[in-house]
Fold:
Amino acid sequence: MASIEIGQPLTARGKATRARIVEAATELVRAHGVANTSLDAVLAASDTSKSQLYHYFADKDDLVLAVIQRQTECVLATHESHLRKLHSLAGLRRWRDAVVELSRQTDCAGGCPLGSLVSELAESPRPRELLAESFARWEALLVAGFRAIQVRSGTSRDCDLTELATVVLAALQGGLLLAQTTRSTRALELALDMAIDRVEAQLA
Amino acid sequence: MASIEIGQPLTARGKATRARIVEAATELVRAHGVANTSLDAVLAASDTSKSQLYHYFADKDDLVLAVIQRQTECVLATHESHLRKLHSLAGLRRWRDAVVELSRQTDCAGGCPLGSLVSELAESPRPRELLAESFARWEALLVAGFRAIQVRSGTSRDCDLTELATVVLAALQGGLLLAQTTRSTRALELALDMAIDRVEAQLA
DNA sequence: CTAAAAGTGGACTAATCAGTCCAGTCATAG
DNA sequence: CTATGACTGGACTGATTAGTCCACTTTTAG
Structure:
């Protein structure tokens, strides 16, 4: 009732405050999970107050929805920058290397920010829908990349690019989960290599 | 200090009480996650009292360790019963079907009980180690199955069965995560099919 | 200028949580 | 039988939590 609905006015200052809250919440959730992130911690990290938070969000669940959306934009932006210029299998393997390197840089901690949200929120309808959309957009990015490879190589063999994108994403998520558990990028490398070999076999 | 250490006496009644607590906690954690499972809820579900819980466990973290171990035994027992009698690729595909069917029966909810624990506990050293051991045992089960297939088929081609087990497990985990998000077994089926095709290519 | 609305600060509440404590019951070894 | 220790019931505490409320300041529209 006290929360911002669609179309409600928002001054520049208001927008900035809201953004500060979402940014701080996203960072805390990525580091500690939804359940282990208290609103008080968000307020402290964003230098705001209770009344501000409840001015812009109906409740914690509402804030979590905003966090999912922001995290989605962050993750997709990272991959989009790599996948946009994709036009060969070698480029896909460079993407693989970048993903592995990113995981290595954080010592394999945290896993995928979106994947982690799934196991915590997948039983709540609205968050689950949002995450499903995020993965769909991620797959679309991969499909676009595959198509670019196909176009460049000339051989437009008939195969389901969407299915390929799904298995690549599954390999990525599964690989990251095992990497997070073992604190080694080995499983991630093997899983992505398998998936990319599959792409090569289907595409070429 | 008040908890049960290794070697401490445990009567039959005590063992039963401890088991009841772990069983209830495991079920609640599987359904709602560690952070969303309160000790009071565990007590209510197991029909025990605070003093009993703290008689057998040092604190909540200690109970969580027991939950990880019990959940590991449950999951591995399920897969062991399928993988033990493995001696052909057809058998491996039947295992795939069983995994898919199991996911379908719960409407893809919950994902893998061990995988879900990872994203919630992977940043705590001891739980993470335990989960890493669980996955290592799971991979060993797969390796044993692959070896049985290799022996039966006669062709003992030289390939790294451990790597194969890792990618199959990664495909399973990633597939389950996407299945949980989309509420469809499609991603799980595709990911497992890809991994098993890989096994076939490497093994035969 | 001025009034209405947007935005803010922080005290407060009620519920829930992990963990403590102690008085007691039960089982069993000697 | 009896004493020791395993086992149990549940009240209690202090900390933390999400969420409420109201007085106040700042911005904006007319």
